[in-house]
């Protein structure tokens, strides 16, 4: 069941679009904002609300890498693996993150604090390597100084 | 026509198409994946690349996709330019990166479009040495097998399933090289046309799951041109056999009828032919049971039965013209009865009379697709004539094409057209007592009792033409709806009215005819299409059989010595007590059938009749088209065509003239002479004496293997192939190696084109008629000159009024469940609903009934207990009883009945 708040937020999007189906990405983002991810049950509820089949909605959900169809940690780290970041040594950054957190790419730490994911180009090529934690963009990340970066995400 | 140059040779081609289609029509082998003649172009796979040149001096040219290049005057392309040849090979190499090396164990192998295209491009060495992406497959239900690893991401499946067939539970998921085609979760594909995925998929992702249980390669199957027997539309099929069992059915292209697609009932019901319930030997009642006996013994017994007294024959709408005619010849025209429910016979006669008198003409399925405004009165077409529903689904696109035309988008440019059109749909109006499977594309639906549906029809006719009968006491709401329907039909170029006998209502049929007549009077070329319940309903009716009720009366009076029942389970035609009385009233009951039906189980003698796969014959579809089906294989034992058994019965009874009815052609000639309405039957297909270059047409592909070995367990010397005195086809791979005339095409195959897409090579133009014209002859055309005086028929019925204590029961139909033969196919049987009665949710509360409750239904003197199903949309006062469903008694409907809780 979608919460009354989620429903209200989704419904407030309707006037901005020509039809209900067009709200589907926003609807999933709203649910994800509240719950961290979009479960099968949420997906069915949203599909029903928007007059879509679950298949259609999941087709959209799985197309976008920022819609999470599996639970994620409290904070999501996204490491850019595009060309500029590769040139500037994102592989060392990735290795350091994996070591420090004790997880592989796509996994979540046992305490549920971090999920580690790759992403393609954050548009910060001039200050590579780059990564995001939740909504924050971190530039020129020094793999040796990760502690300072991660500290504030509890 | 437009002049184009292909590799510097000039050709004249039709302008309204893409260069790929033009090249294929011209006979060039140009590989493609995402394009399909029924789906148009999207330019996704890049496989059909050609070089385009500015003019004759341009030596360099540029690579373009032929499917995205419109035909234009003076256009110059090259298929064979080395650069573009290399480009196409590179494309397929990319598509094949993750494609497994599993052709030897893949069901598609040997008839795979991907194999054909790979060979065509010359890509024969794989350089990709990395891991292939792999997927988990899904259980998609009893019909379609799923093997996603083979996917080359051409998107044809979702384009067909969603955009063409209207399904919503198949979708592409994820992205990049992880794109996955499937359902959200495992489960049976909901669309009734999902089986076409098997042919739409260019490789082995979607394959026939029923074939898997008794798998045989295409090249090892023996085929014959056949006609589907599971509804009245007469779709053309190509069934394949090996070792005496039927292995599968694939589509047999017919430009006017089924085109490229079948419904799932038509494709997956063939397994009834292999059923355990088949009668394979003559059965004779001895010691209170039916015991197998020899042919000689049974004919001896028949001789003594037929020698005395009155023999009545009951024909069948699921038996061929020839079988029915032979029965008529055995018993005499005045003792030949229609084995159909009384209402069905009455309504079929009425529909045929209307179509013969005109003025409206009955369209082919292809013409239905091209209709641009449609009114459906009283039919859930998907359940009663499924393939027609797929055609109607395309019809709602016709008016929207104007949007694309205004933007100068060619109609074959599929996604550009769909993008321009968005959700816009042409007018389709559906009036039925319940939700139908086409409601999602309908502009308006009207859910009401049959009487109200007829009143709507009459009101539409009156709105179109004031001289048509007026409907008294019409509600404002209905009058307005009628006005809107009339307006939409009047504004259309090719309006169509669809109706049929589903609701057993004369008024509904009259109403449909009047709407069509009113449109014709207004100068519109209106079409009028009626569904018919069974594969030869029209053919049987054209023979002029007497009503079944009269046979019942004769039996009651004790006037029946013997009753010969042809391929018919009478318990599906009339209430149990009536059939019991008929069968008990006759001294001897002889049944010819392929299955041991409840009727056959009561007989004294049962003769093993061939199914469509073991017989030759002619069927007449709802459009009045007579089409020949040919024997696929020679069955073991005593199974033979019903008409052959009947001939032998005649001979046994001392009827010497029957000796002349030796082959199918003889029967057809006699039939054509005796029944002028059916005289054209002999033209339905070439006669048995027909030869191409002095040779017969082979039923098996020339690579058919193992003929010398397949009987080696019985005898090491190879038996002679069976003779076929009834057709110009041979039971062999030997014979004329090239294309036969269209009614005689057993399977589609052409050099380099092993998959069913070889049909390209058999058409006059791609997606057009087969070479030499599509098969069959039309027996029914409106009488010329009747347009002027096409009088209006019938009168509007009284309005429906709800009763306090009773519900008005209307018949309900199920694509999987309502048809007799398909029930015996295991895959179809899995999808048959449990017996139930449907009632309006509104009424349920008052009757204190919930979903799933058991209730007692008293209807027309019968009482049965059934589970309740609530139907939100059904109007108050109505209830529905599924027709022909196993576990539901036959009752004459519609009728008032009482539901009580138990």
Question: What would your notes on this structure say?
Answer:
Chain A has seven helices and four strands, in the order ααααβααβββα. By secondary structure, chain A is α+β, with helices and mostly antiparallel strands. Chain A has two domains: 4-63, Arc Repressor Mutant, subunit A, CATH 1.10.10; 75-151, Glutaredoxin. Chain A has a four-stranded mixed β-sheet, covered by helices on one side. Chain B has 27 helices and 36 strands. Chain B has 902 residues and is α/β, with parallel strands linked by helices. The mean pLDDT of chain B is 95. The longest helix of chain B has 16 residues, at 342-357. The A-B interface holds A 19, 43, 53-56, 58-59, 62-63, 65 and B 168-175, 180, 183-185, 423.
User: Beta fraction of the residues of chain B?
Assistant: 15-25%
Helix vs. strand class of chain A: alpha+beta
Could you tell me the number of beta strands of chain B?
A: 36
Low-confidence stretches of chain B: none
How far apart are the termini of chain B?
Answer: 72 Å
Mean pLDDT of chain B: 95
- Strand line-up of the largest beta sheet of chain B: 15-14-25-24-23-16-17
What is the typical, i.e. mean, pLDDT of chain A? 95
CATH topology of the largest domain in chain A: Glutaredoxin
Task: Describe this protein with a few key phrases.
heterodimer, A: about 150 residues, alpha+beta, Arc Repressor Mutant, subunit A, Glutaredoxin, 2 domains, about 10% strand, B: about 900 residues, alpha/beta, six-stranded mixed β-barrel, globular
Compact description:
With 154 residues, chain A is α+β, with helices and mostly antiparallel strands. Chain A contains seven helices and four strands; from the N terminus they run H-H-H-H-E-H-H-E-E-E-H.
Which helices and strands, and how do they pair?
The complex is a heterodimer of chains A (154) and B (902).
Chain A: H1 4-11, H2 24-35, H3 40-50, H4 54-63, E1 75-80, H5 83-87, H6 90-101, E2 114-119, E3 131-133, E4 136-138, H7 146-150
Parallel strand pairs in A: 1-2
Antiparallel strand pairs in A: 1-3, 3-4
Helix pairs in contact in A: 2-3, 3-4
Chain B: E1 2-6, E2 9-13, H1 19-25, E3 49-53, E4 62-65, E5 75-78, H2 82-95, H3 113-121, E6 144-146, H4 156-164, E7 171-173, E8 180-182, H5 197-200, E9 206-208, H6 209-212, E10 222-223, E11 226-227, E12 236-242, E13 245-251, H7 264-268, E14 283-286, E15 289-292, H8 295-307, E16 311-314, H9 321-331, E17 336-337, H10 342-357, H11 365-369, E18 373-377, H12 381-384, H13 386-395, H14 401-406, H15 414-421, E19 428-432, E20 444-447, H16 450-464, H17 476-491, E21 495-499, H18 506-521, E22 527-530, H19 537-542, H20 548-556, E23 562-566, H21 576-585, E24 588-593, H22 598-601, E25 605-608, E26 617-620, E27 625-629, H23 642-652, H24 664-674, E28 697-698, E29 729-730, E30 777-778, H25 786-789, E31 807-812, H26 826-829, E32 836-840, H27 841-846, E33 854-859, E34 862-871, E35 878-882, E36 895-901
Parallel strand pairs in B: 1-5, 16-17, 16-23, 18-19, 18-21, 19-20, 21-22, 23-24, 24-25, 28-29, 31-35, 32-34
Antiparallel strand pairs in B: 1-2, 3-4, 3-5, 6-9, 7-8, 10-12, 11-12, 12-13, 14-15, 14-25, 26-27, 27-30, 31-36, 32-35, 33-34, 33-36
Helix pairs in contact in B: 8-23, 9-23, 9-24, 16-17, 16-18, 20-21
């Amino acid at each position: 069941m979608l919460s009354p708040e989620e429903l209200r937020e989704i419904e407030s999007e309707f006037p901005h679009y020509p039809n209900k189906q067009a709200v589907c990405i926003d609807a999933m983002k709203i649910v994800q904002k509240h719950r961290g991810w979009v479960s099968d049950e949420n997906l069915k509820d949203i599909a029903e609300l928007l007059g879509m089949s679950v298949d259609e909605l999941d087709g959209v959900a799985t197309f976008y890498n920022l819609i999470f169809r599996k639970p994620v940690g409290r904070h999501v780290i996204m490491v850019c693996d595009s060309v500029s970041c590769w040139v500037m040594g994102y592989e060392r950054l990735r290795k350091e993150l994996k070591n420090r957190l004790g997880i592989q790419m796509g996994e979540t730490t046992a305490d549920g604090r971090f999920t580690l994911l790759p992403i393609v180009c954050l548009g910060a090529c001039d200050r590579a390597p780059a990564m995001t934690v939740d909504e924050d963009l971190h530039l020129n990340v020094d793999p040796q100084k990760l502690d300072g970066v991660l500290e504030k995400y509890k | 026509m437009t002049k184009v140059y292909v590799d510097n040779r000039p050709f004249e081609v039709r302008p309204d198409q893409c260069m790929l289609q033009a090249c294929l029509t011209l006979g060039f082998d140009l590989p493609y994946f995402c394009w399909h003649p029924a789906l148009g172009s999207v330019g996704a796979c890049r496989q059909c690349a050609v070089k385009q040149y500015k003019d004759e001096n341009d030596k360099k040219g540029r690579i373009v996709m032929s499917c995205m290049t419109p035909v234009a005057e003076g256009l110059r392309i090259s298929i064979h330019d080395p650069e573009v040849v290399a480009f196409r090979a590179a494309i397929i190499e990319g598509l094949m990166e993750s494609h497994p090396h599993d052709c030897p164990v893949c069901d598609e192998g040997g008839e795979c479009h991907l194999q054909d295209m790979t060979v065509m491009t010359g890509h024969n060495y794989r350089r990709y040495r990395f891991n292939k992406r792999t997927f988990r497959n899904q259980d998609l239900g009893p019909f379609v097998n799923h093997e996603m690893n083979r996917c080359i991401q051409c998107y044809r499946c979702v384009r067909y399933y969603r955009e063409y067939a209207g399904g919503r539970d198949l979708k592409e998921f994820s992205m990049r090289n992880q794109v996955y085609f499937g359902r959200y979760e495992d489960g049976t594909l909901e669309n009734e046309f999902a089986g076409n995925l098997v042919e739409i998929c260019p490789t082995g992702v979607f394959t026939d799951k029923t074939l898997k249980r008794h798998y045989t390669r295409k090249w090892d199957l023996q085929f014959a041109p056949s006609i589907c027997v599971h509804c009245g539309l007469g779709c053309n099929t190509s069934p394949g056999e090996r070792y005496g069992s039927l292995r599968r059915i694939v589509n047999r292209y017919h430009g006017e009828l089924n085109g490229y697609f079948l419904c799932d009932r038509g494709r997956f019901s063939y397994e009834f032919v292999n059923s355990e319930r088949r009668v394979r030997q003559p059965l004779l009642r001895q010691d209170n049971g039916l015991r197998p006996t020899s042919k000689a013994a049974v004919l001896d017994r028949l001789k003594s039965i037929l020698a005395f007294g009155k023999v009545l024959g009951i024909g069948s709408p699921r038996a061929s013209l020839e079988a029915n005619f032979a029965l008529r010849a055995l018993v005499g025209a005045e003792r030949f009865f229609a084995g159909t429910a009384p209402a069905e016979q009455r309504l079929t006669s009425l529909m045929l009379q209307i179509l013969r008198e005109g003025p409206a003409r009955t369209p082919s399925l292809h013409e239905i697709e091209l209709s641009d405004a449609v009114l459906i009165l009283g039919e859930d077409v998907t359940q009663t004539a499924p393939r027609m529903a797929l055609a109607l689904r395309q019809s709602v696109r016709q008016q929207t094409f104007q949007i694309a035309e205004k933007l100068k988008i060619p109609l074959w440019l599929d996604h550009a057209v769909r993008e321009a059109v968005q959700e816009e749909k042409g007018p389709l109006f559906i009036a039925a007592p319940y939700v139908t499977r086409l409601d999602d594309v309908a502009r308006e639906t009207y859910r009401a009792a049959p009487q109200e549906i007829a009143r709507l029809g009459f009101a539409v006719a009156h709105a179109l033409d004031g001289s048509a009968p007026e409907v008294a006491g019409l509600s404002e709401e209905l009058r307005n709806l009628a006005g809107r329907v009339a307006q939409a039909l009047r504004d259309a170029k090719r309006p169509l009215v669809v109706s049929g006998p589903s609701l057993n209502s004369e008024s509904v049929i009259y109403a449909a005819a009047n709407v069509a007549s009113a449109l014709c009077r207004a100068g519109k070329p209106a079409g009028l299409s009626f569904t018919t319940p069974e594969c030869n309903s029209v053919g049987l009716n054209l023979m002029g059989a007497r009503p079944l009720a009269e046979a019942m009366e004769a039996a009651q009076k004790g006037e029946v010595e013997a009753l010969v029942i042809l391929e018919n389970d009478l318990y599906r035609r009339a209430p149990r007590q009536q059939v019991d009385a008929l069968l008990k009233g006759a001294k001897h009951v002889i049944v010819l059938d392929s299955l041991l039906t409840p009727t056959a189980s009561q007989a004294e003698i049962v003769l093993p009749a061939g199914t469509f796969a073991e017989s030759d014959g002619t069927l007449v579809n709802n459009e009045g088209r007579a089409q020949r089906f040919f024997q696929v294989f020679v069955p073991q034992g005593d199974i033979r065509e019903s008409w052959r058994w009947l001939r032998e019965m005649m001979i046994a009874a001392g009827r010497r003239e029957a000796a002349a009815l030796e082959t199918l052609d003889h029967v057809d000639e006699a039939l054509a002479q005796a029944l002028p309405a059916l005289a054209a039957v002999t033209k339905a297909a070439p006669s048995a004496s027909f030869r191409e270059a002095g040779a017969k047409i082979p039923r098996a592909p020339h690579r058919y293997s193992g003929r010398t070995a397949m009987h080696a367990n019985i005898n090491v010397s190879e038996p002679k192939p069976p003779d076929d005195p009834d057709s110009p086809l041979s039971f062999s791979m030997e014979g004329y190696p090239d294309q036969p005339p269209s009614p005689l095409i057993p399977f589609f195959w052409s050099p380099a084109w092993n998959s069913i897409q070889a049909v390209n090579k058999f058409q006059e133009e791609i997606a057009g008629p087969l070479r030499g014209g599509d098969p069959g002859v039309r027996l029914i055309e409106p009488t010329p000159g009747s347009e002027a005086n096409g009088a209006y028929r019938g009168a509007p019925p009284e309005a429906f009024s709800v009763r306090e204590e009773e519900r008005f029961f209307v018949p309900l139909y199920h694509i999987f469940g309502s048809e007799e033969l398909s029930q015996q196919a295991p895959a179809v049987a899995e999808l048959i609903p449990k017996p139930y009665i449907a009632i309006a949710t509104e009424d349920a509360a008052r009757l204190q009934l919930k979903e799933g409750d058991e209730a007692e239904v008293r209807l027309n003197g019968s009482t049965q207990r059934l589970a309740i199903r609530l139907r939100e949309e059904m109007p108050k006062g109505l209830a529905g009883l599924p027709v022909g469903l196993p576990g539901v008694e036959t009752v004459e409907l519609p009728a008032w009945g009482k539901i009580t809780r138990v």
